[in-house]
Amino acid sequence: MPNLIDNHLSLLPTSPGRVSATKRPRLFHYTTLQGLLGIVSSKVIWATNIHYLNDSEEFAYGLGYLRTEAEARARNASSGHRAILLRVASLVDYFKQGYVYTASFAEDDDLLSQWRGYGAGGGVCLGFVVGDLQEIAKRSGFRLIKCIYEQSQKAALAKEFIVHSLPTIDAATTLDDERVEEFANQIVTRYQQLACAFKDPSFREECEWRIISKFVPLDHQSVKVRGTPTMLVPYFEVDLDLGQDSHGRTNIGIDTLVVGPSLQKERILQAASIATKHLTIEASRPSEIPYRSL
Q1: H or E segment at 71?
Q2: Strand runs (DSSP E) across the chain, as ranges?
Q3: How many domains does the chain contain in total?
Q4: Is the pLDDT at 144 greater than 60, yes or no?
Q5: Quick one: average pLDDT of 164-190?
Q6: Could you tell me if 162 and 69 are in contact, meaning their C-beta atoms sit under 8 angstroms apart?
Q7: Three-state SS at 61
Q8: How confident is the model at residue 119, as a pLDDT?
Q9: Is 13 within 8 Å of 209 (Cβ atoms)?
Q10: pTM for the whole thing?
Q11: Which residues constitute the domain of residue 164?
């Protein structure tokens, strides 16, 4: 993989979060009160199909960068590379419809914009230990990736992705259609996962990270469908269960909990401690943001 992409994919958050009882870095998942109960009882987190998120257009734009770069390089490429690049460009529209699943995390454990989205009635923020979250993601075929906001960086990643993919293919060799298809699909499949982390620059304050799947077939056993008042939404159940500790508590990657702004936040915190008593949660607190700020 390219150096620029390797550098981005190897990034890890360094802040442990204000609620942390340890110095281990963590990322924070904001959810509703019902979402909390679902996560702790089922030991899974739902990764949503990218096409059902409100920023799905960024994913499509991200793949567009790859097509632009492939078409530009095809003009001066050798015959073998040209065939692959042109097939990469033609595959983009197909892969824009591909089913990729993602769940979001933030670097901040008490972010007003997130509480406005999830906590109007009293949401929660769950602190995932990064090492555990990486293991959880890997087991399900996902990857933890920091979101990319700057347009110049998105274009640079697409360019370097192409530059570093082609040297693995002998430019002097004439490839049959089957081999061209194989190489082109490999390139777009790898890039598709990265494009799922592209976000509009106006959201950069969120410092979002995502666990992102590769292409997932429609009939995958972990894919389910949930209903909203206006939509049916496919989601992937990501297994969180990492086993039990020496005290018989279950580790699902979460060791901290913040209860969002609410008139009843102390009561919610108390009830949450009951709901999570079987888990390895070491620290919890109410949000420091006044309820009226929502």
Answers
A1: helix 56-74
A2: 26-31, 44-49, 101-106, 124-129, 142-146, 208-213, 223-227, 232-239, 254-259, 283-286
A3: 1
A4: yes
A5: 79
A6: yes
A7: helix
A8: 59
A9: yes
A10: 0.87
A11: 3-289
Query: How many Cα atoms within 13 Å fall on the side-chain side of residue 27?
Result: 23
Burial pattern 76-97, b for ≥16 Cβ within 10 A else e, equals ebeebbbbbbbbbbebbeebbe
DSSP β-bridge partners for residue 126: 29, 257
**Within a domain: residue 91?**
yes
- Give the type of residue at 198: F
The answer to whether position 11 is within a domain reads yes
Question: Domain for residue 59, yes or no?
Answer: yes
Q: Tokens for 3?
A: 């150096």
**Residue 284's beta-bridge partner residues?**
257
Residue 294, in any domain of the structure: no
Looking at this protein, which amino acid is placed at residue 144? L
- Tens of pLDDT, residues 216-247: 988 899 999 999 899 999 999 999 999 999 89
Helix-then-strand count for the chain, H and E:
9, 10
Q: What b/e sequence results for 142-173 when a residue is b if at least 16 CB atoms lie within 10 Å of its CB, and e otherwise?
A: bbbbbbbbeeeebebbbbbbbeebbeebeeee
